[in-house]
Amino acid sequence: MATATTPIGQDQPTKAVPPPVVFDLSQPPVIEGFTPLPRAKEETFKDKFIRKTKENPFVPIGCLGTAGALIYGLSAFRRGKTRQSQLLMRARIFAQGFTVVAIIVGVAATALKPKQ
């Protein structure tokens, strides 16, 4: 029943503990052989809306036409003008179709546009 003991006064070699890794989330990670692209400026809702409207102005026009026909048709229905209400609901469907076609044409034009 012999136990291994170390003599008093002799310290065992200690392992060097590496410092904890701290991640800086405000900076991109450093990867050897890779250079990241600079980050684009954050775009606000207003800036994005204006840019998208300039790219395809028919979508907001169609949305406004749809909303206008719906509101005017509902008010005609409320006043009891059923014929006018029916015509305005048909106009709303036409405006919705116009909007969908404008979206599809805009997506196709964006897809076919050459990359810069």
From TrEMBL:
The keyword Transcription does not apply. It is found in: Mitochondrion membrane. It holds the Pfam family HIG_1_N. Residues 30-116 form the HIG1 domain. One of its GO terms (biological process) is mitochondrial respirasome assembly. The gene is higd2a. PROSITE patterns: HIG1. Its main location: mitochondrion. Keywords: Membrane, Transmembrane, Transmembrane helix. InterPro entries: Hypoxia_induced_domain (IPR007667), RCF1 (IPR050355). One of its GO terms (cellular component) is mitochondrial membrane. Coiled coil: none annotated. It comes from the Eukaryota. This is HIG1 domain family member 2A, mitochondrial. The keyword Plastid does not apply. The chain crosses the membrane at residues 58-77, 89-112.
